[in-house]
């Protein structure tokens, strides 16, 4: 927001509200409400937010969509697949029955697999983001406030986690863990794979948030309100979580909203490499990895899942940016 | 400005979508004959083994033919060659005891190469074989090839340092699988292995303890290539083989390039199959199948080029649909036969194994593999390219399988079976396909993935934990003798490294193998087809699935290439470069 705007629109007040109650003068607004007003005026953020919400709702209600659409994610329509293993007809088999066409070879419906793929992606990404943020907040706040040897140890662990190559670690861990928990005749359960992936993200993903929170806490801990709390005999827990934490929500919310799209692409990348979600579970990474062979023969198979994951990540990122601008209007772009 | 950029982006997307929309994908047909049958004989008339080979229509001399391959050829030492690329490159620079005359369409004749005939069965008991060596055959330095050099070539294949090649002849001579301990090559370099003698310069004699009627076939593998003892450089021969064929290796940049140039001491009058049309054959290593296909489609600088890795999966639809490329592609069924092996140690109920055979949807499976340019359906254990092949289907169920018949065969049982597949993405799709297919018939299938590099070794273990796995077999010569006893003779079951991955051991079938193996090779062909049918009917140890299809593309200037009927890969004996 520019200075000009602030002068013409004092305190960011809604212009329509001014004539209704002019005599009330100054209206008290919480910082949260101010941020919400700023966010609402950001058109990009709002449009992104609505698309994001739509995709999330679509993903969460996947079984309902299946019920309405009438086709399941594992159903095969091989009678609609030609001898050359590509779908019959135009645009990769797009028709009234199959809105986004069919997968080559197996002949499964792309639309319903995308909806279920959304669910898989969002489940993994949001769980991973929640867990990493939680770990990051606790460790960051403790390290920043207590300092000393605790800070040194936690910072050392952060440096250690940052130095470990994530992909190589993931490549090594996945087969080892599955071999440890499953016998040679057992199928590896999908929830187990999802849990291992979330765990992997949690092990590596918390460092960013922890560093950010630690830095913020260091700048806050000598402030008067903290000293006042300490002087009046508040316990450590009270100071950490009742005094410091509420002042940190803004940056945490922003890192969280930017972490989710990161994990969506991260999950797709792991599945692309064959160490995340595998056949036959619907997933973006697997779909894109499979579709690369069809750039020539059936480009729609690549374009559709590619576009959806692009849209998902873009809207999450744009919304996250909008959120940051709203919560922290001083940061210039 | 922003709207204009958005419009441009939208327009570009619409264009991409529009371009792909221009073509309707229809249910075409590759035109491949899934039951193309091989007919073959062992030449009895010595004239068949005489050179020169008949001229190829339109062939001209000169030029350089380039072959692209993703990885280097692992062995060039004829005694160590055993992979397909080596087997089809070897005829350029090496000659063997016997070889195949091949029309590229399944009509093959086994003829003498260095030998005047494809072997003489001296006592008609397949225990003593004699080969008379042709006159006028020479090495690349002009020295004559005699039976002594051929015998030395066979002797050096006993050297464990030179492992990798086929082991048939060594095992037959030594009468044991541990041939390298029975006769130590390094301690006896000046003598010959037991049973191998050279009565004179023109005669090579094999004496076996047991009858081995397949010797003329086994002698067609590159391990019978000759080598003078003085030229034996041991493991270094892999980098610089000593040529006896129409070309010699003149440049070998390890892992990058091989250059073969004409060998002037090769006499076409002695050779029944090879030609010497191009001045050079150049192998270049590096580009993957997609890069190869794209370069060759573009033609231009790659007009005289063949892509050894075949038409890339991602380009099959494009190449098969483009009529202008039709004249530059090679499309033939191959002898590589794929089956769904049933572990009979675990699945002991015959009706379950029969129900699997009724339930299988071969058309769906082939679509999952990539369509009819990749695979062609098969209902027998031996591929159609086998000599004496008869098409039959013991469990007729149509191309999509007969679910009702399978259910009736199961009679209410719901067997729980574990299918193991490798963890690469193509295999996982096949796992999904088979699971969905078989579960319709009432099976409960668990798909278990295992790392692809160890899958083969694990399934070859006698006491493996799995019920179903995919197996493939490409025989070394198109006879049932190189297929059925190898895959289904239960007396050879070992703790590890089995080819009999169904682990069947049936005395009646084993006795049949012995009976037919003792017959004249020319008369065996029909018998193998009968045993094939009998194994399927009485034991059902596997579900025959499909034979691989070879689909290759070459530049506009390449002529005379064909897919050989023995291995199913491009062959160079008649190749030429159009000027």
UniProtKB/TrEMBL annotation, chain A:
<dbReference type="InterPro" id="IPR050366">
    <property type="entry name" value="BP-dependent_transpt_permease"/>
</dbReference>
<dbReference type="GO" id="GO:0055085">
    <property type="term" value="P:transmembrane transport"/>
</dbReference>
<dbReference type="InterPro" id="IPR025966">
    <property type="entry name" value="OppC_N"/>
</dbReference>
<keyword id="KW-0813">Transport</keyword>
<comment type="similarity">
    <text>Belongs to the binding-protein-dependent transport system permease family.</text>
</comment>
<feature type="transmembrane region" description="Helical">
    <location>
        <begin position="194"/>
        <end position="213"/>
    </location>
</feature>
<dbReference type="GO" id="GO:0005886">
    <property type="term" value="C:plasma membrane"/>
</dbReference>
<feature type="transmembrane region" description="Helical">
    <location>
        <begin position="153"/>
        <end position="174"/>
    </location>
</feature>
<keyword id="KW-1003">Cell membrane</keyword>
<feature type="transmembrane region" description="Helical">
    <location>
        <begin position="300"/>
        <end position="320"/>
    </location>
</feature>
<dbReference type="Pfam" id="PF12911">
    <property type="entry name" value="OppC_N"/>
</dbReference>
<dbReference type="Pfam" id="PF00528">
    <property type="entry name" value="BPD_transp_1"/>
</dbReference>
<feature type="region of interest" description="Disordered">
    <location>
        <begin position="1"/>
        <end position="22"/>
    </location>
</feature>
<feature type="domain" description="ABC transmembrane type-1">
    <location>
        <begin position="118"/>
        <end position="320"/>
    </location>
</feature>
<feature type="transmembrane region" description="Helical">
    <location>
        <begin position="244"/>
        <end position="264"/>
    </location>
</feature>
<keyword id="KW-0812">Transmembrane</keyword>
<keyword id="KW-0472">Membrane</keyword>
<protein>
    <submittedName>
        <fullName>Peptide ABC transporter permease</fullName>
    </submittedName>
</protein>
<feature type="transmembrane region" description="Helical">
    <location>
        <begin position="47"/>
        <end position="71"/>
    </location>
</feature>
<feature type="transmembrane region" description="Helical">
    <location>
        <begin position="122"/>
        <end position="146"/>
    </location>
</feature>
<keyword id="KW-1133">Transmembrane helix</keyword>
<dbReference type="InterPro" id="IPR000515">
    <property type="entry name" value="MetI-like"/>
</dbReference>
TrEMBL record, chain B:
<dbReference type="GO" id="GO:0015833">
    <property type="term" value="P:peptide transport"/>
</dbReference>
<dbReference type="InterPro" id="IPR030678">
    <property type="entry name" value="Peptide/Ni-bd"/>
</dbReference>
<dbReference type="Pfam" id="PF00496">
    <property type="entry name" value="SBP_bac_5"/>
</dbReference>
<keyword id="KW-0732">Signal</keyword>
<dbReference type="InterPro" id="IPR000914">
    <property type="entry name" value="SBP_5_dom"/>
</dbReference>
<feature type="signal peptide">
    <location>
        <begin position="1"/>
        <end position="21"/>
    </location>
</feature>
<feature type="region of interest" description="Disordered">
    <location>
        <begin position="27"/>
        <end position="56"/>
    </location>
</feature>
<dbReference type="GO" id="GO:0043190">
    <property type="term" value="C:ATP-binding cassette (ABC) transporter complex"/>
</dbReference>
<dbReference type="GO" id="GO:1904680">
    <property type="term" value="F:peptide transmembrane transporter activity"/>
</dbReference>
<dbReference type="GO" id="GO:0042597">
    <property type="term" value="C:periplasmic space"/>
</dbReference>
<dbReference type="InterPro" id="IPR039424">
    <property type="entry name" value="SBP_5"/>
</dbReference>
<protein>
    <submittedName>
        <fullName>ABC transporter</fullName>
    </submittedName>
</protein>
<feature type="domain" description="Solute-binding protein family 5">
    <location>
        <begin position="110"/>
        <end position="492"/>
    </location>
</feature>
């Amino acid at each position: 927001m520019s200075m000009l705007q602030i002068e013409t629109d004092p305190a960011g007040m809604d212009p329509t509200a001014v004539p209704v109650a002019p005599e009330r003068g100054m209206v008290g607004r919480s910082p949260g409400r101010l941020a919400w007003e700023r966010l609402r005026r950001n058109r990009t953020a709002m449009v992104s937010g609505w698309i994001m919400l739509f995709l999330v709702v679509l993903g969460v209600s996947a079984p309902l969509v299946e019920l309405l659409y009438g086709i399941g994610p594992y159903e095969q329509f091989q009678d609609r697949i030609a001898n050359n293993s590509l779908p019959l007809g135009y645009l990769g088999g797009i028709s009234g029955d199959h809105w986004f066409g069919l997968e080559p070879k197996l002949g499964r419906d792309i639309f319903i697999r995308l909806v279920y793929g959304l669910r898989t992606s969002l489940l993994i990404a949001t769980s991973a983001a929640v867990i990493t943020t939680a770990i990051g907040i606790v460790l960051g706040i403790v390290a920043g406030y207590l300092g000393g040897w605790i800070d040194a140890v936690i910072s050392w662990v952060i440096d250690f986690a940052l130095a470990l190559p994530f992909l190589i670690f993931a490549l090594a861990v996945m087969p080892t863990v599955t071999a440890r928990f499953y016998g040679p005749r057992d199928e590896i359960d999908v929830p187990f794979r999802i849990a291992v992936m979330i765990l992997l993200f949690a092990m590596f993903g918390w460092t960013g948030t922890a560093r950010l929170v630690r830095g913020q806490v260091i700048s806050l801990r000598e402030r008067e309100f903290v000293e006042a709390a300490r002087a009046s005999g508040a316990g450590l827990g009270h100071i950490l979580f009742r005094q410091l934490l509420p002042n940190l929500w803004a940056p945490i919310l922003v890192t969280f909203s930017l972490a989710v799209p990161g994990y969506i692409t991260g999950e797709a990348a792991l599945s692309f490499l064959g160490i995340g979600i595998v056949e036959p579970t619907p997933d973006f990474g697997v779909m894109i990895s499979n579709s690369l062979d069809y750039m020539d023969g059936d480009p729609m198979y690549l374009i559709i899942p590619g576009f959806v994951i692009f849209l998902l990540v873009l809207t999450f990122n744009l919304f996250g940016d909008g959120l940051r601008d709203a919560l922290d209007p001083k940061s210039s772009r | 400005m922003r709207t204009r950029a958005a419009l441009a982006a939208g327009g570009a997307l619409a264009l991409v979508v529009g371009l792909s929309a221009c073509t309707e994908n229809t249910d075409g047909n590759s035109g491949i004959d899934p039951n193309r049958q091989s007919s073959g004989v062992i030449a009895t008339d010595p004239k068949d083994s005489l050179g020169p080979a008949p001229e190829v229509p339109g062939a001209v001399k000169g030029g350089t033919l380039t072959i692209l391959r993703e990885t280097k050829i692992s062995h060039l030492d004829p005694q160590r060659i055993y992979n397909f690329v080596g087997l089809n490159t070897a005829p350029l620079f090496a000659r063997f005891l016997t070889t195949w005359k091949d029309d590229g369409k399944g009509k093959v004749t086994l003829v003498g190469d260095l030998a005047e005939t494809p072997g003489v069965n001296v006592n008609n008991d397949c225990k003593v074989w004699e080969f008379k060596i042709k006159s006028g055959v020479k090495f690349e330095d002009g020295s004559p090839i005699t039976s002594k050099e051929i015998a030395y070539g066979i002797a050096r294949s006993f050297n464990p340092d030179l492992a990798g090649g086929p082991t048939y002849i060594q095992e037959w001579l030594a009468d044991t699988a541990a041939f390298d301990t029975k006769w130590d090559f390094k301690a006896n370099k000046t003598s010959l292995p037991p049973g191998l003698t050279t009565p004179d310069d023109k005669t090579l004699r094999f004496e076996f303890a047991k009858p081995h009627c397949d010797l003329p076939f086994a002698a067609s593998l590159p391990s019978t290539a000759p080598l003078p003892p003085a030229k034996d450089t041991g493991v270094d021969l892999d980098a610089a083989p000593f040529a006896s064929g129409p070309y010699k290796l003149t440049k070998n940049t390890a892992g990058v390039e091989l250059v073969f140039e004409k060998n002037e001491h090769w006499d076409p009058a002695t050779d029944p199959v090879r030609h010497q049309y191009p001045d050079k054959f150049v192998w270049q290593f590096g580009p993957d199948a997609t890069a190869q296909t794209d370069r060759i489609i573009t033609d231009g600088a790659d007009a005289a080029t063949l892509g050894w890795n075949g038409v890339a999966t991602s380009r099959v639809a494009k190449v098969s649909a483009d009529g202008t490329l039709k004249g530059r592609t090679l499309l033939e069924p191959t002898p590589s036969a794929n089956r769904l092996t049933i572990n009979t140690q675990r699945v002991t109920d015959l009706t379950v194994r029969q129900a699997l055979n009724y339930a299988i949807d071969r058309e769906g499976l082939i679509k999952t593999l990539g369509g009819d340019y990749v695979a062609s359906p098969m209902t027998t254990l031996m591929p159609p390219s086998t000599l004496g092949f008869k098409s039959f289907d013991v469990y007729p169920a149509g191309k999509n399988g007969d679910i009702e018949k399978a259910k009736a065969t199961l009679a209410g049982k719901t067997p729980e079976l574990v299918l193991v597949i490798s963890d690469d993405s193509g295999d996982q799709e096949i796992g999904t396909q088979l699971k969905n297919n078989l579960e319709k018939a009432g099976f409960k299938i668990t798909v278990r993935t295992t790392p692809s590099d160890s899958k083969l070794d694990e399934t070859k273990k006698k006491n493996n934990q799995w019920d179903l796995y995919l197996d493939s077999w490409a025989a070394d010569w198109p006879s049932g003798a190189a297929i059925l006893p190898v895959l289904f003779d239960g007396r050879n079951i070992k703790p590890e490294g089995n080819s009999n991955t169904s682990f069947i051991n049936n005395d009646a079938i084993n006795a049949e193998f012995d009976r037919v193996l003792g017959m004249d090779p020319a008369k065996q062909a029909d018998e193998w087809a009968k045993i094939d049918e009998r194994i399927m009917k009485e034991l059902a140890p596997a579900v025959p699935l499909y034979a691989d299809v070879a689909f290759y593309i070459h530049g506009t200037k390449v002529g005379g290439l064909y897919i050989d009927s023995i291995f199913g890969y491009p062959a160079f004996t008649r190749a030429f470069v159009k000027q």
